[in-house]
Design a protein that fits this description.
Layout lengths: L5 H5 L7 H15 L9 H22 L1 H7 L1
InterPro entries: DnaJ_domain, Hsp70_co-chaperone_J-domain, J_dom_sf
Pfam families: DnaJ (PF00226)
Organism: Polyplosphaeria fusca
Length: about 70
């Protein structure tokens, strides 16, 4: 099974600007944030938590010029 790239996870093309990466991150982080999933089934909360962690990792890599160049 192939894993998503950081770009796919954020729903942006590879040639996207840093500002667009941050916008996509904020939009998705808002959707999957643990505070938005209180009272939902455990599996939904766990999935959302995993998604939040993956989104944070994607932002960390893609927002640093050197890390992004190495990743690409």
């Amino acid at each position: 099974m192939a894993t998503e790239t950081h770009y796919q996870l954020l729903g942006v093309p590879e040639e996207v600007s840093l500002d667009q990466i941050k916008q996509a991150y904020k939009k998705l982080q808002f959707k999957y944030h643990p505070d938005r999933n209180v009272g939902k089934p455990v599996q939904v909360r766990n999935d959302a938590d995993g998604k939040c962690k993956a989104l944070s990792q994607a932002l960390n890599v893609l927002s640093d010029e050197t890390s992004r160049r190495d990743y690409d």
